[in-house]
Design goal:
This protein is mainly alpha-helical. The chain has four domains: 40 residues, N-terminal domain of TfIIb (Single Sheet), CATH 2.20.25; 139 residues, no CATH class; 41 residues; 142 residues. The protein is 75% helix and 3% strand. The protein has 15 helices and five strands. Strands 2-3-4 form a three-stranded antiparallel beta sheet. A two-stranded antiparallel sheet has the order 1-5. Strand 2 and strand 3 form a beta hairpin. The longest helix has 46 residues. It is flat, with a radius of gyration of 36 Å. The protein starts with a strand and ends in a 9-residue tail after the last helix.
């Protein structure tokens, strides 16, 4: 059975959201075209028919390579070389798709090495991967669960604190001034120069307005990642609240960075208003606040007017087509006829494609005279070699006789260059012979696309009033 297989983590569990295919293992998003290219043949689930197959055993050379990759990956991880560690863990994941360490650290180090703008996305991907990682951990011996889970907790907690610190530092660096003042600092500014203090506090508000969206898009996924980790430890791994509390504390610490950065509670507004009134400048403060409120009211009113305009337009279109049923039915009928023709063409295309595939299969099974002669003689040679190899130590004469016969058959085989040239000529001739069929399919597809386009255009007419009658 064919399934979509994630290129990064090897997971086959996908969900679809807004036209994107989202990996259930690592959270990577793929377009429809990318997902189509990742279709792979995957064995049916065990238990569907017959007994469950035994777990596959790695060949010795594969197992040896996996052990080396794991050793190199761990060595790079311990040396804090995240780029090299990510490389080896990704290679290991291709060798062992169900290795929890490879599945986790492939996503983990990708998040560690991400750009500042991708902080939220990195945290979300690690969070999405936890379901799959704990599934793999639970396939290991039960005595290993605790150790593996503790390792995941330590790494995710460290990642969360690193991401939150990077986010906070970036917001501070990009701001054109401080992001908050204490009440004491505000009072001192106002006492020194009320007008300058007012301008400074307005700049402060501007900085916070600019930084706010980044804080929300960066810090919220970090907190969600830690909360998801705590839930998984409690629900899947059986940890009690006392064990899980440390993870929630880290979540509070990481999100607390954002709270302290942007949402510090103080009485700046009330203090400013009080001091402005005391020095006879309350009107300046109120004028600003009134202008700010008017701006918000104007934006809200504009949104309401636009929403009302769209609702009225939809109602007007509905009433128009209710009154012009003949025109509507004609458009619906024409669109249905075009769709019927398109469906007919689709069936023709499928039929021709099946014919092309059948001819291609038959061609692949057949062989030219020289190639067939080569294959027949090769079969006889292998059979004689099998018999010769089965003879005992004291069957020297029989072995020599078979060896002579094998050499004689090899001399009768056509030259490899000749039969491969013959094969290339046959393939060239086959392509030329099926070229008209391929061209017919291409033309039918063009017609099919055009019919669908016309049908869509007709259906779109019913979503608006004709211009000449608007």
């Amino acid at each position: 059975m064919k399934q979509i297989v994630c290129e990064l983590c090897g997971c086959t569990r996908f969900s679809k959201e807004d036209g994107w295919f989202i990996c259930g293992g690592c959270g990577t998003r793929y377009s429809q075209a990318e997902a189509r290219n990742m279709l792979r043949e995957v064995p049916d689930a065990p238990g569907a028919a017959g007994p469950e197959p035994a777990a596959p055993v790695q060949p010795p050379e594969t197992a040896e390579r996996s052990e080396k990759l794991l050793l190199l990956a761990r060595r790079a991880k311990e040396s804090n070389d995240s780029v090299t560690a990510a490389k080896y863990y990704q290679e290991l994941l291709l060798e062992e798709p169900e290795n929890w360490e490879a599945a986790f650290y492939t996503i983990y180090f990708d998040a560690m090495n991400g750009k500042i703008a991708q902080i939220g996305e990195a945290a979300a991907r690690v969070s999405n991967s936890l379901d799959y990682v704990f599934e793999l951990i639970k396939k290991r011996p039960r005595e290993e669960w605790e150790k593996d889970s503790v390792e995941v907790v330590g790494q995710v907690s460290a990642l969360a604190l690193m991401l939150s610190k990077n986010a906070a530092d970036t917001i501070r660096q990009n701001a054109s001034g401080p992001l908050f003042y204490t009440t004491q600092e505000t009072n001192a500014m106002i006492d020194r120069n009320p007008q300058q203090a007012f301008a400074t506090l307005m700049l402060l508000k501007k900085n916070r307005d600019v930084a706010g969206p980044n804080a929300n898009s960066w810090f919220a996924p970090i907190g969600s990642m830690l909360i998801n980790l705590g839930d998984k430890l409690h629900q899947e791994m059986g940890w009690n609240y006392g064990q899980v509390k440390a993870v929630y504390d880290v979540a509070a610490s990481a999100v607390g960075v954002a709270r302290n950065l942007l949402f510090r509670q103080d009485s700046t507004g009330d203090e400013l208003k009080k001091h402005m009134a005391a020095i006879g400048m309350q009107d300046v403060y109120e004028t600003y606040m009134l202008a700010n409120q008017r701006k918000k009211d104007a934006e809200w009113n504009a949104q309401q007017e636009e929403r009302q305009r769209k609702e009225q337009e939809r109602e007007r279109i509905r009433l128009y087509w209710e009154e012009h049923t003949e025109e509507r039915d004609a458009i619906v009928g024409e669109a249905a006829e075009l769709q019927r023709q398109a469906d007919g063409l689709q069936k023709e295309i499928w039929k021709l494609e099946e014919e092309t595939n059948r001819e291609n299969r038959e061609f692949r099974k057949s062989a030219g005279p020289l190639e067939q002669q080569y294959r027949d003689l090769e079969t006889r040679i292998r059979e004689k070699e099998r018999v010769r190899n089965s003879l005992g130590l004291f069957k020297g004469k029989e072995k020599q006789r078979l060896t002579d016969e094998i050499e004689k058959l090899r001399k009768q085989q056509p030259d490899e260059t000749d039969w491969k040239r013959e094969k290339a000529d046959r393939e060239r001739a086959f392509r030329e012979r099926t070229k008209p069929l391929q061209e017919e399919i291409r033309q039918l597809r063009t017609s099919w696309d055009e019919l669908n386009r016309k049908a869509d255009a007709l259906r779109a007419k019913l979503t608006r009033i004709p211009e000449e009658k608007a």
